[in-house]
Amino acid sequence: MEGPRPARKEEFEEVMILLNQIFKKSMRDNYPQVYTNREETLKNMITRVTHYF
User: Fold this and answer.
1) pTM, whole model, 2 decimals?
2) Integer CA distances (angstroms), 33 to 9, 27, 28, 44, in order
3) Angstrom distance (rounded) from CA 6 to CA 9
């Protein structure tokens, strides 16, 4: 397990898929000012990652 740590740019889409499943709506469409794939946003998206091989 890796983390907690800020999300990486290449992980953004996976984080958004997870958030959309949890909250049952498109978080990016409803809150575009919060969920953008920019460095200042990613540092606030704290993640834990488990790698399955």
Assistant:
1) 0.72
2) 17, 10, 8, 13
3) 10
